[in-house]
Amino acid sequence: MRRLVVFNMMSLDGFIADSRGDMSWARRHDEEWNSFVAGNASGEAVLVFGRVTYEMMAGYWPTPLAMENAPTVAKRMNELVGEMKRLKAEPGADMVILGSASIVRQLTDARLIDEYQIALSPIALGSGKSMFSQLADRANLTLGSARTFRNGYVFLSYQRTGSGEPA
């Protein structure tokens, strides 16, 4: 069974982008960090990205209002979870989500994400986009590993905990 992993840069106050969607603050690269990222990305994982249009609509389509106003469209827009369940059940390389906060929220709620890799950046943004805002329920996680870097980043790897099958 494939695993689904999230990799995101995050500010100390929990944002993956500032209030304007800017992520330039996440570029504190040096030789040690670049080597780590290259090694982490060298596997055969399938990359999963959200589309800009999807991100604009993702806050609306899972709502009861969307189901009432446009049930057919809402059903199609929300099929991401079912598709991800199908893909995870197939043999093949792991899948990695980069960015895409709305998709992370949906798949976290469905308990389909196996690992959260967070590169914590030594900056506080004050406001911005969070990949964990508006979760339907808590996401219980266990720290798998942590590593500090000279540039101030801390890499954290968390695994989903709890019993039961994905929702």
What is the topological layout?
Elements: E1 4-11, E2 17-18, H1 31-40, E3 46-48, H2 52-57, H3 64-69, H4 71-77, H5 80-89, E4 95-98, H6 101-109, E5 115-121, E6 128-129, E7 141-148, E8 154-160
Parallel strand pairs: 1-4, 1-5, 3-4
Antiparallel strand pairs: 2-6, 5-8, 7-8
Q: Nutshell version of this structure?
A:
This protein is an alpha/beta fold.
Task: Describe the protein.
By secondary structure, this protein is of the alpha/beta class. Helix content is 29%, strand content 25%. The protein is built from six helices and eight strands. The chain has helices at 31-40, 52-57, 64-69, 71-77, 80-89, 101-109, and strands spanning 4-11, 17-18, 46-48, 95-98, 115-121, 128-129, 141-148, 154-160. Strands 3-4-1-5-8-7 form a six-stranded mixed sheet, with no helix packed on it. A two-stranded antiparallel ribbon has the order 2-6. A hairpin with a 5-residue loop joins strand 7 (141-148) and strand 8 (154-160). The radius of gyration is 17 Å and the shape is globular.
